[in-house]
Amino acid sequence: MRRLLPSLSALHAFEAAARYLSFTRAAEELGITQSGISRQIKNLEEFLGLTLFHRSGPRLVLTELGAAYYRDVSLTLDKLQEVSMDAVRGRSIDTSLILGTHPTLASRWLPMMLGSFIDRHPNIPIEVQCADTNLDFETTRLDIAILRGVGSWLHARCFKLLNEELVVVASPKLIPPGTQCSPTDISDYIQLQNAGQPSLWMHWLRLSKVNYNGRLQGPRFAYFDMIINGAINGLGIALVPSFYVRQEIECGTLHMPFGAPIASGEAYFLVYPERKSHQPSIGVFRDWLLKEMRLSRHSTDNARFYCQRRPVQASE
């Protein structure tokens, strides 16, 4: 008997629109017009006899049935992709890894770590993608992720890797090395802002236990990598996780005029979907990274990732 199935193009259109909650962004991803997305979804709704989306003011919202259908369709499309990749590569998808993490972590920390893994496991192909902290592990295509947070993700298993510490850094061109500043001195400089964490400077001030009534403003950047490059070029002072700038501090392109790093209260975790916990390559990567982290710790969780502390601390 012929299977009663919607068209694959309609499912692609629906999955993209549901993922972005936007016909426009779905159209951009699939390379078709917005009206084409709308038409595909209308055809799918007529085929199913269901309403998959409704409008809440200007926002596109999944109906309850639409949300449940999205989860199932996303998993089904993932499986179709897996079996297609198996056929093309002649090997099981279980031997490969799609790894997601934050953009700056992917560009600064991860490459230093992956060399060891690739040397030991050359037969496990790795693909690295950007991932958001609010990842949906019930539907994500990622096999494994390294994320910042407090260790709470639904439908996932997580393992703590290292605690996050925040440090204020500056270029020697902006603040001469050896200068000792107090937290309230940040008002003397442009403070480079993280668009994704707009309250980060205020959080650091609270951690520093100071009362501050000055301005908190400066150019906003999407990622820490951009902020670090801005600091290197003397645009302003930057507040960043300390392990992102370890090399810059060691070589002197940045220094810490406002003192040593301070624990932020958050950490970085290895996270993967519960539904993929049987995948052998995930277990291999997890065990390797956790072992690397244990070996790298000396007296603190962050020993391997600490900035080289120079004698510019305010307490000196």
From TrEMBL:
The keyword Oxidoreductase appears for this protein: no
Top-rank taxon, per record: Bacteria
Pfam families for the chain: HTH_1, LysR_substrate
GO molecular function: DNA-binding transcription factor activity; sequence-specific DNA binding
InterPro entries: LysR-type_TF_proteobact-type, LysR_HTH_N, LysR_subst-bd, WH-like_DNA-bd_sf, WH_DNA-bd_sf
Keywords: DNA-binding, Transcription, Transcription regulation
Gene Ontology BP, a term: DNA-templated transcription
PANTHER family xref list: GLYCINE CLEAVAGE SYSTEM TRANSCRIPTIONAL ACTIVATOR, HTH-TYPE TRANSCRIPTIONAL REGULATOR
Family in the record: Belongs to the LysR transcriptional regulatory family.
Name of the protein this chain belongs to: LysR family transcriptional regulator
